[in-house]
Amino acid sequence: MGENFNMADFKEYMRDGQVDHPPALYEDYKSTVLRSPSRKAVRLEHTLSEITGPIYGHGPIREGEDDLSIVEGEEAQGQRIFVSGQVLDENGKAVPNTLIEIWQCNAAGRYRHEVDQHPAPLDPNFVGGGRVVTDDRGSYKFTTIKPGAYPWGNHHNAWRPAHIHFSLFGPAFVTRLITQMYFPGDPLFPFDPIYNSIPNEKARERLISSFDLETTEPDFALSFKFDFVLRGKNSTPFEQENKS
Amino acid sequence: MRGITPSQTVGPFLKIGLERDELQYLVREDADGAIKILGHVYDGEGKPVPDAMIEIWQANIHGKYAHPDDSSESAIIEGFSGFGRSCTDKDGKFFFVTVKPGRVSGRGNTLQAPHLAVNVFARGMLKHQVTRIYFEDEIESNSEDPILNSIVEKADRNTLLAKISQSEKNNFVYSFDIHLQGEGETVFFEV
Description:
The complex is a heterodimer. By secondary structure, chain A is mainly beta. Chain A has a single domain, classed as Protocatechuate 3,4-Dioxygenase, subunit A. Chain A is built from three helices and 14 strands. Chain A has helices at 48-51, 193-196, 201-205; strands at 42-43, 70-71, 74-75, 80-89, 99-103, 129-133, 139-145, 150-152, 158-160, 163-168, 177-182, 210-211, 222-225, 228-230. In chain A, strands 4, 7, 12, 13 and 14 form a five-stranded mixed beta sheet that branches. A four-stranded antiparallel beta sheet of chain A has the order 6-5-10-11, with no helix packed on it. A two-stranded antiparallel ribbon of chain A has the order 2-3. Chain B has a single domain (15-179), classed as Protocatechuate 3,4-Dioxygenase, subunit A, CATH 2.60.130.10. The longest helix of chain B has 6 residues, at 139-144. Chain B is mostly beta strands. In chain B, strands 1, 2, 3, 4, 5, 6, 7, 8 and 9 form a nine-stranded mixed beta sheet that branches. Classes of the chains: A mainly beta, B mainly beta. Chains A and B meet through β1, α1, β5, β11 and α3 of A and α1, β5, β6 and β10 of B.
């Protein structure tokens, strides 16, 4: 039993930055209409259950899981790219040893998934899922193919800007994040309700990666940089006699 | 302070990157004290959500989290990570095979009832929702749980209780449905 746990030992996670997330209901993205709670979420003051989280929950990463551009020795079609960066928290502290999972469509804008009926070609040498764990400095790197844009059924002539889905854990239950990374200069940004669901324009732009010449590999691959900022802890410890 | 990276939906193709069937089993089905938690995710019209993903985070049977920030003296159990993930099928169904966690401390000098912290992701959800799974047969500890007690309406509190539904191969099976919206809407937490 956990009776001996001293609550004064722990610091809660900050809530201020939470306003930068999209709302549950954003009518321009039609699927939110029936999948958003109608009631306000109940504020839960953090306990041990929220400030801990699954840091050992994944199995071992196999060699090659960081490279989506090759399947069984055969190269995928499309523009080979690196996507790399650092995972930090709101206090600027690196988040080491955290699992990152990604998934994406191929260069033609088609996902290897039964639900995707877009009449663009599948690539036998592209599956579209990968995993890495950040190193001691919170850094990560994937090799992949630049995903294509693709149409979807949200509204007439709707197209998603090219993106890669990213899933991150961070050190606690409350640092969990799933998001999408976009590419600079995409002409589809003004028309995409998922991208525009983020109310704050500055926050929205945090999802756009930047082209980085320095980390390209000559005669091999272009390179995009994308850093993450996960929730950080409050600087002052939680007060023992909280009467809320 | 650095600006946080905003959330985006998992979209309809989440299984390409996230589906790992082994993560539905936190323990083996024949392990001592194994239970099954089985549920469905429904939308505001009561229709199943076939492209959702449920993740759970829990303490072990001693009430200890496999995490360095749990400084309690309870024992860690080798091989029990406390993390589970289940993607819903075409009927919106998910399940986990796990053990009922022990009690962990709450705020102040309180003790929480056995519970699982839950993240709910789906196409159509721009950010995941957070809820908890408690157990209906933990009557005494539930009555002492500060978070359960903060939910005023009994019907709302009930949305957080896994119900004993049947026994399967000597394992207790609990049912826990998640209603994203409308009738029987699950209580979600802002954490």
